[in-house]
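Can't attach files on this board, so I'm pasting raw text. These are the components:
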Amino acid sequence: MFAYACIGILFLFVIVKCIQYGWHRKKSLDPETIDKALLGMLNSERDKA
Amino acid sequence: MSKKNSKTPVYLKPFHKTKYSYEKLKVCKKCHAFSILGDKTCPDCGKPDLIPVEEQAARNAKHSMHTAVLIAVCIGLLSIFLSNSFLQMALCGIVTIVLIGVLWIVQRNVLDTESIRALDKLFYANQKNVQDGIIEDYKAAIDNWDTDKQRCYEMLREIGTLLHNDMMRLRQLTLLQTFLLRKDMDLELEPLLVRKYEPVLVDYIGELAKIKRDLIKDRTFQYIMAFEPEIMGQEQGLDILTAVAGAAVRMKHYVRSYAGFVRRYAYNLPKDRFLRLYQMIEQYPNEDWGRLSEEVMRIYTEKYQWDPDFQQKSQRGHSI
Ligand SMILES: [Zn+2]
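---
Top answer:
Structure tokens for the assembled complex are below.
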């Protein structure tokens, strides 16, 4: 019985992980956005020419 | 000694441009220090563990995926261990293998998006480390200010891809003004434009207008026009303004956009530049050049009416 419970947990775990990956893919970040965020972090608004 | 003679001839390393500025950034695998200058050796701990941030992000993403697989394996093994019969054991084993297989296939397909996410996470979690790393790089570059100006400039140019402020730009411009600039050098202009009037920048623009006209684009023309009275008052100001007007002549778009500016310095343009301007105006008579065309015709009549170059080119222009 415990073995089936474990398999159930494993099944849920894999499903949750796959949904999580799919969600990340759907809301995928753009490298340009990351670049802008990094430049924004390193440079204050005042400095931008 | 003339200004030009006091300049040093240098051979600058080619500047490798990247699509995204973060591609220049590296991180130490051991101490998590960030640097834009280091090649392999970490400037903080001295270990040869510096890797590009993208590589670190991919490692982080893979690590997180491996952890998920490991958890799945542990749960699967536990199910086998807790089985009451051989049949149950086999069943649990097969289901575990299938589920882990599915997880592995999904992970393989999302590695790119997960790596990008990990990169964002890496920067967000290490904001202070990134800032500190860049400041350390800046200090390392400035240490060479008096001893090795070329190295100092090359370092500042790299840091300048991430650090955008007028102090950085002015430091680079000051160094560039100590070098004997050549056409074949890997130079840049637009990233060095500052907000205020800076004679050192104007001098640099003046030099580029002579040796690398293609670097002079819209933002530079706008800068020069914004500070035209100040430039006129500076040493060789008229020469610089004329050289910039000469650079505008290389493209119809610039002549049309800054017709007033070109008109003001058209009289002083060298013959070859004026000839180009004259041909442009002749070639597009229906274009709205404002008062520029009148001024060009006036200069032509006054200075070049009997010049054979203008006659030949003019006839050729009409025959096209
Ligand atoms: Zn280190």
